[in-house]
């Protein structure tokens, strides 16, 4: 990434590009969840330091608050055929209700409104409309969509992972606290935690709270415009419980720090605070956080390493400082950290 002060320059997508050796893209998780490395980036110096994930408790204090995203990844990929016999692949992007979804459909010819497709040789769906590149599908079966996906679908691993999902992925591409089904990609910062780590943090006095944000496939969508202000951000549904709001307020009152476990948590919290007051409830967010953004809730961010030219790389650059992130990524590549969903983690302090 190029070095310059982005606050005094027109921000370009190219500013967030970097060269990543192919062998640093993690194809499989570590043997144990907590066996990954942890790169810590301090707030004042901005210098990266090497840690392991087991060192995380050393960076947290009593009365600090960790907030997790308890979404659960659904088996969103379905194979089937059209009435004409042509093959189709359906990738469920969002479950609307028990019988309707929005999905990406891959076929030789896009299905037309009213057309029927048979999926997994088990049930039919009807195309009832379209919203840009997403198809509005109705599942013509009395069984709820989530149950059909669990029975017949395939886990949707990210596009940069080259193997098909196996039984181990069905366990390791879910967080140990996954609860509310609806995501098509894992909140990957949480994949490093096992039950023992969470128990240890609680014993230390670190508080734990949860939000739900159903991660969409748009999380992998590259920014294809030169001027990032022209990028159309994908929308995602989230829910922040009232108990989580109270935990945040108590943490701020006691002088503790709010740590978002993953960019999805950060986006949900910052979205809920746009009015100036953090509010609970169910909402939609298409917030696009770029350098120059003023953070209202989160003090510290635990995250993985992100794709070049991605909205998430722009987000962490806003949080920890553009030059700090540029230097940290260069350092991580030199030290051969593992990148992306199954890769290593970063602990970022908010830039002062």
What does this structure look like?
- By secondary structure, this protein is α/β, with parallel strands linked by helices.
- It folds into two domains: 248 residues, QueA-like (3-Layer(aba) Sandwich); 76 residues, Thrombin, subunit H (Beta Barrel), CATH 2.40.10.
- Helices cover 20% and strands 27% of the residues.
- The chain has seven helices and 17 strands.
- Strands 2-1-17-16-14-3-12-13-15 form a nine-stranded mixed β-sheet. Strands 5-6-7-10-9-8 form a six-stranded antiparallel barrel.
- Strand 6 and strand 7 form a beta hairpin.
- Helix 6 packs across helix 7.
- The radius of gyration is 21 Å and the shape is globular.
- The relative contact order is 0.21.
Low-pLDDT runs: 1-9
Strand content: 25-35%
The number of E-state strands comes to 17
- The top-level CATH class of the largest domain is Alpha Beta
Work out the helicity level: 10-25%
Oligomer: single chain
Report on the biggest sheet: 9 strands, mixed
Q: In angstroms, what separates the terminal alpha carbons?
A: 21 Å
Order of helices and strands: EEEEEEEEEEHHEHEEHEHEEHHE
Structural class: alpha/beta
Number of helices: 7
At the third CATH level, what is the topology name of the largest domain? QueA-like
Mean pLDDT: 94
Shape: globular
């Amino acid at each position: 990434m190029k070095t310059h002060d982005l606050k005094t320059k027109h921000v370009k997508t190219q500013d967030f590009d970097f060269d990543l050796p192919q062998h640093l893209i993690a194809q499989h998780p570590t043997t144990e969840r907590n066996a990954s490395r942890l790169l810590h980036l301090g707030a004042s110096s901005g210098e990266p330091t090497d840690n392991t994930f087991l060192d995380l408790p050393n960076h947290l204090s009593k009365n600090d608050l960790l907030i997790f995203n308890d979404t659960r990844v659904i088996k969103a990929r379905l194979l089937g055929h059209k009435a004409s016999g042509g093959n189709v692949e359906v990738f469920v992007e969002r479950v609307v209700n028990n019988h309707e979804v929005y999905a990406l459909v891959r076929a030789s010819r896009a299905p037309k409104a009213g057309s029927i497709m048979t999926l997994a040789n088990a049930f039919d769906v009807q195309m009832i409309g379209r919203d840009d590149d997403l198809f509005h599908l109705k599942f013509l079966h009395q069984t709820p969509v989530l149950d059909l996906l669990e029975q017949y679908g395939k886990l949707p691993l990210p596009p940069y992972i080259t193997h098909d999902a196996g039984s181990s992925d069905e366990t390791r591409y879910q967080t140990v606290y996954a609860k509310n089904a609806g995501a098509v990609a894992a909140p990957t910062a949480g994949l490093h935690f096992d039950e023992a780590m969470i128990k240890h943090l609680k014993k230390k006095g670190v508080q734990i709270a949860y939000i739900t944000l159903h991660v969409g496939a748009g999380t992998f969508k590259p920014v294809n415009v030169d001027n990032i202000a022209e990028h159309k951000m994908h929308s995602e549904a989230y829910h922040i419980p009232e108990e989580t709001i109270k935990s945040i307020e108590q943490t701020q009152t006691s002088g503790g720090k709010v740590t978002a476990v993953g960019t999805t948590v950060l986006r949900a919290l910052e979205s809920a605070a746009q009015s100036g007051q953090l509010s609970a409830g169910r909402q939609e967010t298409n917030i696009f956080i770029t350098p120059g953004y003023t953070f209202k809730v989160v003090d510290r961010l635990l995250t993985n390493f992100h794709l070049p030219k991605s909205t998430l790389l722009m987000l962490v650059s806003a949080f920890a400082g553009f030059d700090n992130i540029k230097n940290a990524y260069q350092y991580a590549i030199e030290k051969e950290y593992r990148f992306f969903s199954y890769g290593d983690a970063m602990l970022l302090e908010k830039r002062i």
